[in-house]
Amino acid sequence: MPTPAEPGQPHERPVLEPIRVLRPRNTDALAELFREMTQETGPYEAVRLPTGQPGTEADTQELPPVGRRRPPAERGGGVHRVAVAAVAVLAAALLGFACALLLPGRGGQAAAQTPPATTPAPATTPPAATTDPDGPGTLREGATGPEVIDLQQRLRRIPNVYDDGATDGRYDTVLTEAVARFQLWYGIRGDETGVYGDDTRRDLESRTG
Q: Which among 193, 188, 194, 192 has a CA at the least distance from the CA of 202?
C-alpha cells in the first residue's frame, strides 16, 4: 500500500508531452478543378470581335463641358416639353372639376322639373252650432230688446226682487242682480247665476201668469 507523500515534498509524476497529429490534405479535387479551368476544352469557344473601320472626325460630337450653361436654343426644347405637360395636367384638372359641378346641377334641374306631389287637403267639417246650455232663448247681461222688457215687467211683480226697476229693454248689472236674487230665493238651479234661461223663464212665467 503506497504511503502518502509528506507535506512540502513534490509529488513525482511522469511528464506528459504534447502529441501532434498530422493528417494529409485532400488536394485531388482542388487540382482537378484547377486543371479544368486551365484547359481550353469545354462547352465554350473563343469568338473574335469584329473590328470596324475607324470613324472620321466629322462623325464625332463634342460633349459640353460640365458646369457650362446650355445656350437658349438648346434649352428651348426641354422648356417647351415641360410647358406642354403642365398645360395638359391643368386642362385635365379643369375638365374633372367642370364634370363634378355639372353632374349635381343636372340632378338638381331634374328634381326641380318634377312637380311636387300634392297632398289632398283634409276635409274640414263645419263646426257644430254652439247651443247655450241655458236654453235657446237665454238672455244675459248685454242683451237688449222686447224680451228684456218682458223680463223686467215680470220681475217687478215679484215682491222685493226688482222694485221700481227700469223697463228700458237693457240687460244691465241691476237686472242681472235681480235675476240672481230671484233664482236664489226660489231655488232655481238649472241656469247660471244672473242668466235668464229656460228654467228661470219657466218658473217666472208660472208665478206671473
A: 188
Cα distances (angstroms) measured from residue 202 to each of 80, 156, 208? 115, 16, 10
pLDDT at 142: 93
Task: State pTM to two decimals.
Answer: 0.39
Q: How many residues does the chain have?
A: 209
Q: Which residues contact 32 (CB under 8 A, 6 or more apart)?
A: none
pLDDT per position as a tens digit, 159-209: 999 988 899 999 999 999 999 999 999 999 889 999 999 999 999 999 988
For every residue of 65-89, DSSP letters joined together read PTTPPPPHHHHHHHHHHHHHHHHHH
Domain made up of 146-208: CATH architecture? Orthogonal Bundle (1.10)
d(Cα 194, Cα 154) in Å, to the nearest integer? Answer: 15
Distance CA 106, CA 30 (A): 84
- Domain map of the chain by residue range? 146-208
Provide the 10 A C-beta neighbour count for residue 170: 16
